[in-house]
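Researcher: Structure for this, please.
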Amino acid sequence: MVTAALRSLLARRARLAMSLFAVLLGVCFAFGSLIFISTLERAFSAVQSGTVSDVVVRQAGVRSGQGR
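Model: Predicted structure, token format:
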């Protein structure tokens, strides 16, 4: 049984090579997308940590301590 399977694989080398290439390409795309997502998360975290976070926004004409 094993020899028949190996004989079949060796007889169709192009199909075997294309299948291996397809699996390799799929793994590379999955790995690349995970790295890309991680890089984006790190970049956005760096941008957010570099901004000023304690900003007070007030309506024009309203003084502090006085409500409407």
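Researcher: Any notable elements?
Model: DSSP finds two helices and no strands in the chain. Residues 24-48 form one domain.
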